[in-house]
Amino acid sequence: MADKEKKVYKFDFEIKPELCMDCATCWFVCNNDGGSSAVYVKVNGRSEYAIDKEICIRCARCFRACPVDAVVRINKAEVSA
Fold it and tell me: Which helix (H) or strand (E) holds 39?
């Protein structure tokens, strides 16, 4: 069985902890509304939501669902520049 090539995306989504109000809407839609279950709770001194870029399918459900615009789209060109 041949290994599948990993898909290369032109953008990523990221959750800005300073904007997040911990409502869990992004987590809910990603895990229960057809997303890829990429949103998870990261604990490093305090709990915050994060997106696992390895399993995220870039469906933008979290991005559209966030009531405070804490989920941002980051173009790969912006990151590498």
Answer: strand 39-43
* pTM of the predicted protein model: 0.82
pLDDT score for 1: 47
- Helix ranges (H only) for 24-80 are 25-32, 61-65, 76-80
Which domains does the chain possess? 11-80 (3.30.70.20)
Pairing of strands 47-51, 11-15: unpaired
What is the distance between the alpha carbons of residues 41 and 53, in angstroms, rounded to a whole number? 14
CB atoms within 10 A of CB 32: 10
- State the Cα–Cα distance between residues 41 and 36, nearest whole angstrom: 15
* 21-31 pLDDT tens trace: 999 999 999 99
What would you report as the CA-atom Rg of the chain, rounded to the nearest whole angstrom? 13
